[in-house]
Amino acid sequence: MSAVLRNGTFFRKLFYVLLCVGIVGLCWWLPTRSVRQPAAASPAQARVAQLIGGLIPLSPEQLVTAPEVDGFQWPCGAPTGAMIYDAQPFGAMNEKRHGHHTGKDLNGIGGQNTDSGEPVCASGRGLVVYSGAPSAEWGNVVVLAHRIPGEKGVVQTLYAHLNTREVRVGQVVSRGQRIGSIGTADGRYLAHLHFETIRSLSTEAGMRGYHPTGTMNRTDPAELIRRYPAPPMPDPYAEVRRVRIREALMQEAAAASPDLPDGEDFIPVTPQQFLTP
Q1: Which residues, other chains included, contact 229 with Cβ-Cβ below 8 Å and sequence gap of 6+?
Q2: What b/e readout covers 185-214, taking b as 16+ CB neighbours within 10 angstroms?
Q3: Strands 84-88 and 104-108
Q4: Is the per-residue pLDDT at 210 higher than 70?
Q5: Range of 69's domain?
Q6: 122 pLDDT exceeds 80?
Q7: Is residue 103 exposed (0-12), middle (13-18) or buried (19+ Cβ within 10 Å)?
């Protein structure tokens, strides 16, 4: 009798163990049945995915130090927009790229690669928040952040497919200052400048240059320049910067010059004092 009881206890314990194992297995198996496997990306989606870079939020310091503009000008050709044409307008639908163009493609009036290596200048006084090559399709890219007097937040200008980048992150540049040169993204396109204006609190270099439903947070560069035209004079910030650099050079030259003998009443002059950076 005791052997039967002992066997009954054993079987009850075995039953409970198997029941627990079954419940754990069921809990693991059911969620896996409900998970849908992602569909394979189409070739078009794969091409678009290559243009998507990571958003980099602007730091509080960048938002504060982004300078106020005195206006915007065209970044290549003449400041007023002469000597260039818009090869692909803002918002235009590009079937090959499966979306609307989020910027302007600015070409020299000679067409083809006649503008290769021509200067690209800052459209407005700004802080360099990106300088790099986010992807092969984008090539060299520079992004500036600007504050517009009386408006909240910042507006960014993006300059893409550059042959050279001539500024670094953290640098403040004046309107009209050279920041790079027109390029071809290592031969992927005919020479031109892809120019965007962006309302965002993140740097978006490498994000889509074409979007299937619209232009996202991009704005029309021509509209921004019409609303806030640059005055017909150099950026005062650039003039102040030249004076400060010239003063620094003069101080360096004075410090390096020998002490004057007693009774001498002349000041030594060096050519470096008159250099204009």
Answers
A1: 71, 72, 73
A2: beeebbbbbbbbbbebeebbbbbbbbbeee
A3: antiparallel
A4: no
A5: 57-227
A6: yes
A7: buried
Asked whether the predicted pLDDT for residue 157 surpasses 90, the reply is: yes
- What is the radius of gyration, based on Cα positions, of the chain? 31
Q: How far apart are CA 156 and CA 195, in angstroms?
A: 11
Contact 103, 171 (CB under 8 A): no
Q: Judge whether 63 lies within some domain.
A: yes
As to burial, measured by CB atoms within 10 angstroms (0-12 exposed, 13-18 middle, 19+ buried), residue 99 is buried
**What confidence score (pLDDT) does residue 270 get?**
63
In this structure, is residue 40 part of a structural domain? no
User: Which CATH number characterizes residue 76's domain?
Assistant: 2.70.70.10
Residue type at 138 in one-letter notation: W
Q: Average pLDDT, stretch 192-197?
A: 95
d(CA 202, CA 182): 25
Token code pair at residue 120: 């690209």
**What does the angle CA 165 – CA 171 – CA 172 come to, to the nearest 5 degrees?**
110
Look at residue 274 and tell me if it is in a domain: no
Dihedral of the CA atoms 13, 18, 20, 24 (nearest 10)? Answer: 160
First to last CA, the chain: 107
The C-alpha atoms of residue 26 and residue 260 are separated, in whole angstroms, by 95
Q: What is the pLDDT of residue 38?
A: 37
How many structural domains is the chain composed of?
Answer: 1
